[in-house]
Amino acid sequence: MNGAHDMGGMAGLGELPLQDDEPVFHARWEARVLALTLAAGAWGKWNIDRSRHARERIPGPDYLAMPYYGKWCAGLVRLLLEEGMVSAAELASGRPDPSAAVATPRFTADRVAAALRRGGPTIRPLDCQPRFELGEAVRARNINPEGHTRLPRYVRGHAGVIERLHGAHVFPDDNAHGRGENPQPLYTVRFAARDLWGPSAGPNDSVRLDLWEDYLEPA
C-alpha cells in the first residue's frame, strides 16, 4: 500500500542520527514489546506479512511520530483486537477480564533461543520455470495496491537488470491477506541510481532490490 511507511527516496524527514556502539534496545520497554510480539505470534493467528501490514495501517501522522518499537506495539495491539485475543475494555483498563478464558502460553522462555535460531524461512520448492533470466532487462510494474506489498514506491516504473535468482519464496502480497503463500521466483534486480534519481546521482551508483516475479515485467 502507499503510506507513510514507504519512505524510500523521500527527503525532508529529518536527520538519521548515527550512534556509536548503539545498544540493541534503547529502553527496557522496547525489549518487552519485542518479547510480546514473539509470544503473541507463536499462537499462529497471523504471519509476518500480516504483522507488517498491521504496522503499515497506522495513520500517517501517528506513524511518523512513533519510535520504531512504538509502531510494533501499535501493530500488535491491532492484531490482538482483530483476533479477539484481548478486548478494547481490557486494553483500556490494563486488566484482564475475570470472565475470559486463560490460555497457556505457547512460547515459553526455554523455547526462545531455538526459535530465534530457526527463524521463519520463506523459501519454497520452485515448481515453475522462472520467467526472467540473469542479465535480462526488466521493469518494476507501476502498481499501487491497497494491501501489503514489498515493492517500493520509488522504483515503480523504472527499468533494471536481473542479477540473481533466489529460488521461490512466499509472496507477501498474498500471504498478508490470507490468500495463501503463492510462492514465486524472487530476483535481485539492479537499478542504476541515475535512472531512479536523475543526473544528480552518482554515475557509478546503483540500488539492488530483491523483487518477486509479479512485481516485474519485460523492459
Molecular structure report:
This protein is an alpha+beta fold and 219 residues long. It folds into two domains: 28-118, Nitrile hydratase, beta subunit (Cyclin A, domain 1, Orthogonal Bundle); 123-218, SH3 type barrels, CATH 2.30.30. Helices cover 30% and strands 16% of the residues. It has eight helices and six strands. The protein has helices at 28-41, 48-56, 60-65, 68-82, 88-93, 112-118, 172-175, 193-197, and strands spanning 123-124, 137-140, 159-169, 184-192, 206-212, 216-218. Strands 1, 2, 3, 4, 5 and 6 form a six-stranded antiparallel beta sheet that branches. The chain is globular, with a radius of gyration of 20 Å.
Structure summarized in a few sentences:
The protein has 219 residues and is α+β, with helices and mostly antiparallel strands. The protein has helices at 28-41, 48-56, 60-65, 68-82, 88-93, 112-118, 172-175, 193-197; strands spanning 123-124, 137-140, 159-169, 184-192, 206-212, 216-218. α1 (28-41) packs parallel to α4 and α2 crosses α4.
Count of helical segments?
A: 8
Oligomer state equals: single chain
**Total domains:** 2
Order of helices and strands: HHHHHHEEEHEHEE
List keywords for this structure.
single chain; 219 residues; alpha+beta; Cyclin A, domain 1; SH3 type barrels; 2 domains; 6-stranded antiparallel beta sheet; 8 helices; 16% strand
SSE layout and pairings?
Layout: H1 28-41, H2 48-56, H3 60-65, H4 68-82, H5 88-93, H6 112-118, E1 123-124, E2 137-140, E3 159-169, H7 172-175, E4 184-192, H8 193-197, E5 206-212, E6 216-218
Antiparallel strand pairs: 1-3, 2-3, 2-6, 3-4, 4-5
